[in-house]
Specification:
Radius of gyration: 20 Å
Bound molecules: glutathione
GO molecular function: glutathione transferase activity
Organism: Urochloa decumbens
Catalytic activity: RX + glutathione = an S-substituted glutathione + a halide anion + H(+)
Enzyme class: transferase
Structural class: alpha+beta
Helix content: 40-55%
Strand content: 5-15%
Distance between the termini: 60 Å
GO biological process, one term: toxin catabolic process
Length: 314
């Protein structure tokens, strides 16, 4: 949108009944918006910007509040807080096979930021992790000049905003909001299902149920891929961006499940676009630099399942 161009915003938000879904998020049956996220959540609010729907309140807020700002640039804007990579005091608390930590490592790598990396033992968490993320006690935590930041999506956006260089999130406000919508979808719908395969399944039936949920989420992303990628190789266009990192960081775990349980989360027969995207993602320099071999995940999974089993029989 160029500054001053006519824009129509319509907000569909008038139905009063809200049912908490997860973490208090309102849930409401809503008529499907016309395009782009047509059958995903069916919830309010939806903002219509020039006829294009933006779903999820946090995504639409970012779009609507940017209305009067200057037109986006192709690279991260050099605001007073935007820095050149290189001389920052950055420490990342991560774990080799944590897809969430991998997102942050990929973002730092894309911006050319050097940082100290500390591998956490999640069965014996460090005092630094516990004091830096007292709320969730999880990796990743990025400690920048002594100040901790938690939650992978928050950290990736922080890194993107802080450092100059190619933008990780789309610079266009609508595409940016849409990328955030789908990132939230990956974390709210897909991740609990595939992590559930690892943690919560004892029988084949339980596993099959989790695989079904993960698969359904994948099919929705498959349907959205052509529009999000605009016919290009990646969600981010010709090179990887925010959504590529968010979803791509999970792929080696899907391969681990295939090896462990003979289940397929992305079936090339049913999700050919995502299957081809996953191949391309794995071939990128960024993925090769940071994403571990699936066997690392298999080994970790055995260790984790043994720890869960021991905890249950105590
Ligand atoms: N929503 C979080 C999820 C982070 C997460 O699940 N981290 C896991 C490792 S993959 C963890 O630290 N688990 C430790 C625990 O559950 O105690 C994010 O995006 O950063």
């Amino acid at each position: 949108m160029s500054p001053g161009s006519p824009t129509t915003f319509g907000l569909l938000a008038s139905v009063p009944v809200c049912t908490p879904l997860r973490q208090g998020r309102p849930q409401q049956q809503v008529q499907a918006p016309p395009r782009l996220q047509p059958r995903v959540h069916k919830k309010l609010p939806v903002i219509l910007q020039d006829g294009r729907p933006v779903c999820e309140s946090l995504s639409s807020w970012s779009t609507s509040t940017r209305r009067s700002r200057p037109a986006p640039r192709a690279t991260s804007p050099m605001t007073p807080t935007t820095r050149m990579a290189g001389k920052e005091d950055m420490k990342l608390l991560g774990m080799l096979v944590s897809p969430f930590a991998i997102r942050v490592r990929m973002a730092l790598s894309m911006k050319g930021v050097s940082y100290e990396y500390a591998e956490e033992d999640l069965l014996n968490k460090s005092d630094l992790l516990l004091s830096s993320n007292p709320v969730h006690k999880m990796v990743p935590v990025l400690i920048h000049n002594g100040k901790p930041l938690c939650e992978s999506l928050v950290i990736v956006q922080y890194v993107d905003e802080l450092f100059a260089g190619p933008s990780i999130l789309p610079t266009d406000p609508y595409k940016r909001a849409t990328a955030r919508f789908w990132a939230a979808f990956v974390d709210d719908k897909l991740c609990p299902a595939w992590i559930g395969i690892l943690k919560e399944t004892k029988t084949e039936d339980e596993r099959a149920e989790k695989v079904k949920v993960a698969h359904a989420a994948i099919m929705q992303i498959e349907e959205a891929f052509p529009k999000l990628s605009e016919g290009k190789a990646f969600f981010g266009g010709d090179s990887i961006g925010y959504l590529d990192i968010v979803l791509g960081s999970c792929l080696f775990w899907f391969e681990a499940f295939r090896r462990m349980f003979d289940v397929e989360i992305i079936k090339s027969s049913e999700a050919p676009l995502l299957a081809a995207w996953a191949e391309r993602f794995g071939e990128t320099a960024e993925a090769k630099e940071v994403v571990p071999e699936a066997d690392e995940a298999v080994q970790y999974a055995h260790k984790l399942r043994a720890a869960y089993a021991a905890a249950v029989t105590k």
